[in-house]
Fold this protein.
Amino acid sequence: MPILPKQRDIFPDDLLEERVGQPGEAISPASASSWVAFYTLARREKDLMRKLSAAGIPFYAPLVRRRLPAAGGRVRTSWVPLFPGYVFSPVDDEQRRAALASNVVSRWLSVPDTRMLVVDLRAIKRLIDSERPLTPEARLEAGQTVRVRSGPLRGLEGMVVSRRGEERLLVAVRFLNQGASIELEDVDLERL
């Protein structure tokens, strides 16, 4: 049983979805705005997400399931930020000021390459939506870049890394130099 139910980690729900405009032109509600990364006060990411949602300000802060042992051999589930301290948001100046007025933002970082960030966040969301066990990766290492050829993660690009004797597919948010990885058991990969 979860300690608390999972709260909304993306607003609006279609923030990262691609839509097709003119023939051959892919547009996204997220790619038109300038993105920022709000860095929150310690352990206040969910508080900021609730305040942004109430104010109608779009955001994405991926939450992942964390299982904790409890007394009596039980296991408790909680939802924790994949990138502690960060909430990503496509905002204009007025929305940014409203977020800063929430008193839970320590600082904000302008994203230099919005398109790259949106692509990375889409990949992270697909990884989370696959409901496979994830491992947060705080530092990226050089490795072979690959693409998944089949299955529910088809088309996802990442890097192969080795952790504790097992091969893993690492999907990164390059802006933060952090990411998440899943175990490579029977995933069909091709080199890029």
Notes: The chain has two domains: 1-129, 132-192. Helices lie at 45-55, 93-100, 114-129. The chain has a mean pLDDT of 88.
